[in-house]
Amino acid sequence: MSDVTIGLGRTARSAWSLDDLSIVPTRRTRDAELVDISWEVEAFRLELPFLAGPLDAVVSPESAAEIDRLGGVAVLDLEGLWARHEDPRPIIDRVAGSDDATALEVLRKAMEAPIDPDLVGQRIKELRAAGIVSAGAVTPQRTIDLAEVIVAAELDLLLLAGTVVSAEHVTDDEREPLDLKTFVRRFDVPVIVGGCTSHRSALHLMRTGAAGVLVGGAATSDAVNARVLGIGLPQATAIADVRAARRRHLEETGVYVQIIASGPLHTGGDIAKAIACGADAVLLGPPLAAASDSAARGALWGQGAVHQRLGRGGVEHLDPVGTLEEILIGPARDQDGVTNLFGALRATMAMCGLRSLAELRKADLVVNAGRTVGGPTR
Q: How many CB atoms lie within 10 A of CB 40?
């Protein structure tokens, strides 16, 4: 990819967002019923290729069971409200019923309570008792502290997530740095790590032995991180870079690492293009927060919103667009693309004559007319 001159002696790569691209149909079409959009990660086979992001606004033990029924996996935030309060429902209800500023104040106060390792174990056991895939998320800073309780509670899938995750996390306190390679290989739970946006960082994460890598930030953070921190990479280019890293890692080791796209994914078209760029599945946050039966019934906040020293983002109150079922598998209420997300994915593949997600990852892509190399991207 060519560089773009941005001033004397300084260049930058040109990069593309998902909005810049379109999938090209082939000469063949097929019935939607003949399309397979199932996804396998480790020992788990899912009907839909997605994880529900670790947001208290979206995932509770109750909503996790509904998401599992619909064909996905819900990831519970093991550092959030459910890990700090015996019953956080009154807090979430107050957030949902307050204006944005008051809701943020309520959240920040609630998050001052310490993480209770016993509650972390209890939440995992609640998920397992429901007969669903138990998935939880922690940040690198808390991983070592919570590892023992996570293993004891027999978590099925761990998401080790942050704004940017590296193969070694250095801290300034007395604890040893988190060496992901050592941790993942000793940890008796499949681990998905991220987010990352570059070929080099993805390759380092894959070499730790992770089952998957997350491309992009946390479920709501990409645009905020770009504005507040100045970091990020347009999603289409980021996924393509990580796909190239996965190919190199596969050639070196024979191990296939799952790529899960996160960030600005709002419609079925976004999901289809993310997979066409190289993703195996997606992590969804805001689209599910707009469900009438999500944990916070339309309120939405990310982990960065409650950061005490550098808050990133706030609390939004979204207009409900349907139930979790309508958002994920339909029926669609209108034509804006925010409901029946995976019905739309299936339709895209049918119109392009594609049978599987593996074939979609080989589909032809074009840059939309009017886009120029080095031009602005959202």
A: 12
Bridge partners of 215, per DSSP, are 196, 261
Q: Which amino acid is at 352?
A: C
- Give the Cα separation of 155 and 166 in Å (integer): 23
Q: What is the DSSP string of 341-369?
A: HHHHHHHHHHHTT--BHHHHTT--EEEPT
Helix, coil or strand: residue 201 = helix
Contact 234, 377 (CB under 8 A): yes
Place of tokens 């600005």: 264
pLDDT in tens, 171-208: 555 555 567 778 787 778 899 998 888 899 999 999 98
Assigned CATH for 14-367? 3.20.20.70
Map tokens 């996905």 to a residue.
Answer: 72
Task: Tell me how far CA of residue 310 lies from CA of 111, 228, 229, in angstroms.
Answer: 14, 9, 10
Enumerate the domain spans of the chain.
14-367
Q: Which pLDDT tens digit goes with each residue over 130-141?
A: 999 999 999 888
**Which value, to the nearest 10 degrees, does the dihedral of the CA atoms of residues 326, 332, 333, 336 take?**
120
Instruction: State how far the Cα of 349 lies from the Cα of 343, in Å rounded to an integer.
Output: 10
Count, residues in the chain? 378
Give the SS3 label for residue 136. strand
